[in-house]
Amino acid sequence: MEPSLARVDYLQVGVTAQKTMRLLPASGKKATQKVVVGDQDGVVTCFGIKKGEAVPVFKTLPGQKISRLELGGALNTPQEKIFVATGSEVRGFTKRGKQFLSFETNLAESIKAMYISGADLFLCASYIYNHYCDCKDQHYFLSGDKINDVLCLPVDKVNCITPVLACQDRILRVLQGSDLLYEVELPGPPTVLALSNGNGGDSGEEVVYGTSDGRLGLIQITGTKATPRWEIGNEKKRGGILCIDSFDILGDGVKELLVGRDDGMIEIYNFESADDPALRHDYALSESIASIQGGCVGKDGYDEILAATYSGWLTGLTTEPVHREGGSGEELKLSQEMQNKISSLRNELEQLQIKVLHEREKYQQSSQSSTVVSSVPAFSVNDKFTLNKDDASYSLILEVQTAIDNVLVQSDVPLDLLDVDKNSAVVSFSSCDSEPSSNFLLATYRCQANTTRLELKVRSIEGQYGTLQAYVTPRIQPKTCQVHQYQIKPLSLHQRTHSIDQDRPMNTLMLKGQFSFAEIHSWVVFCLPEVPEKTPAGECITFYFQNTFLGTQLESTYRKGEGYFKSDNISTISILKDVLSKEATKRKINLNISYDVNEESVRHTLKLIHPKLEYQQLLAKKVHLIDALRELQVHEGNVDFLLPKYRSILEEADQLLEEYKRQPAHLERLYGMITDLFIDKFKFKGTNVKTKVPLLLEILDGCDQDGLIAFFDAA
């Protein structure tokens, strides 16, 4: 049976960060629970609901922005003490709002993640993990990449302290004291961790994780190894997961998994079989879900899902039925309670409108004064720029706390703008003069009213690097704009991976010179995405990458004074050689560059590209035939006389056009990659073959793999 959930908007606070809203334990079995939320204005708000209205319990004064909010208390007692992380400080409040703790950790960076278990406090800054017991420092760990979340397995079940760190490099790091116990490789960068069933399952060892690319999984973490139990991919191409909770919303005696995503989706998974959870229900809000909780909030006896969104709205999906009494005809009589609520809201709205008019007049008068300077209104932008493995494109997500008026996108490198289904904005392109101003892309997205979230997709060309800029203008007065910059790296389509196929034919680039470990690491950060900015601990490091467009791979190993880069794609090696030598020249460092080219690797790369090339050429031919075939259909009225292959083109016309529209310039990109491969192969031999490129393009139009390989060998 589908759950019947009605939406209720309770209250709006300031902009909220991930995991900053919790429900306090109920006083009785089916009694309503108080809500506590921390926002980026530094305010902790605690409220309950009476007769559909939010009634405040306490509210603190503004301060530094709150990055995390957790509940704590002695083990095996109700967890009703409120702890907030703000800057490098942890504060504790009772459920009545009295502050009983102010713990200054003296961390060099702000706290990003926090977990509390009894007297144990686990804190993480970007790369640093600290464990405190009764506010005394116990353990410390330096992670190899950014830490996104932290939790500890329940001590009462596993009888030891086992912290788990979710790190950006697609790894869960399981600790023991200050030491790394072992690492768990994940399919995507984990953004959130939660104990399965809220308590780690029967064994206390089960941890649910959500990733930034929308995957969900459960892992059993024992003292010696980790065992994956299940994993759900992101087939529907939804947003990244920001929050997870366990709660029995269906009332079947088994806790469901509640999931909040950064595209506004709330999902309910239930465990029909003991193995994998199944998606039972979903609900879409218009902005990212920062926190999610299951409980009883609005009315005694009615469970609900409470979500806190990015802009600070606390929204409930309640099981309480919406009562309506049928009147004569179409007329519906609202309950007295509802009529009173509507009346009070109208009064409140009228007062706000009067206040806005008064303030606007006041502002207009003051702005005309010669001595007063107009103040620029501040607004928050939540942005995310990530590489999608499925279609080798970058997603740029911009979320603003107020409605967006327009977004201007500008780039100094060639980029393809791809279609996004969820995007309702109207896009217009301006002509660019790329020579004097290095302007390759200039596009404006005009948003519809009340749009607070905009998603764009771009595809870059490897070897061409620079900056993509987004100018975000919200619908506020006076008009103001924020500029956000995103680096397009030389090897922008490469994504970190855990391992590579060592049996492929590899080309090697070797660098030697008077450079430090930190210097060569900064060059690798400049060239490749998903590399931590902080110089790794130790003397040597190895990273593995995969090209999301072609499937070729790269291994980079470097230390002080030397670096080794191996790839089955000679163009990757050529780009690295050019960029690294340019970066070294900037710093006046003399590099000794040598390389080992494997002729077989060129054939191998061509065989990887060819199926994609063949598919795109066939798609382009089919799309070009559609208009002519449709005209024939109109004139003849019947297309039974056509060959089956032409009839199938007509039947699939809409899907073909949609696919072709989604991938503009895909064929040109493949032609460009093969041309670069041809030029790079001979560049390493010291031969310039640019005059033979027109001949190569003729062969490409024929789409013959053997002929193409023969041309590469004979040239």
UniProtKB/TrEMBL annotation:
Occurrences of domain BBS7 beta-propeller (ranges): 21-319
BBS7 GAE domain mapped to chain residues: 377-486
Stretches assigned to the BBS7 helical hairpin domain: 599-712
Keywords: Coiled coil
CC per GO annotation: axoneme; BBSome; ciliary basal body; membrane; neuron projection
Domain of life (superkingdom): Eukaryota
Domain BBS7 platform, chain residue ranges per copy: 494-596
GO biological process terms, semicolon-separated: intracellular protein localization; non-motile cilium assembly
Residue runs in coiled coils: 335-362
Designated name of the protein: BBS7 protein
Source species taxonomy: Eukaryota, Metazoa, Chordata, Craniata, Vertebrata
